[in-house]
Amino acid sequence: MHLLSLIVFSFWFSSGKTFGEDQPIQTFVIPHSHMDVGWVYTIQESMHAYAANVYSSVTEELSKVKERRFISVEQEFFRLWWDSVASDTQKKQVWTRIYNHMISYLY
């Protein structure tokens, strides 16, 4: 999952204190894919170079910790991975993760 970008959201909770006082900060790290289809390399080059590894490793990592989540934003890479790389076991795992809201897709 080292190729995944991370979006970090920080939320400042004031709980009635004035600005500038010591206040807790809660941070959320959300792994997501960000591979621009056809930007630098062809779709096939990108798929074989890194995209296939992202989806395979995400599928594996989500099975380790049930609280993990992943957001996919490139449906073309996912479709290619599904059609040409994913095993039957990985496909079953993906369906389970989608059903359990562990994988989301942005359109």
From TrEMBL:
The keyword Signal belongs to this UniProt entry's keyword annotation: yes
GO cellular component, one term: lysosome
Span of the signal peptide: 1-20
GO MF, any single term: alpha-mannosidase activity
Domain Glycoside hydrolase family 38 N-terminal: 27-92
InterPro entries assigned: Glyco_hydro/deAcase_b/a-brl (IPR011330), Glyco_hydro_38_N (IPR000602), Glyco_hydro_38_N_sf (IPR027291), Glycosyl_Hydrlase_38 (IPR050843)
GO BP term, pick one: mannose metabolic process
Keyword set, alphabetical order: Signal
Protein known as: Glycoside hydrolase family 38 N-terminal domain-containing protein
Upper classification of the organism: Eukaryota, Metazoa, Chordata, Craniata, Vertebrata
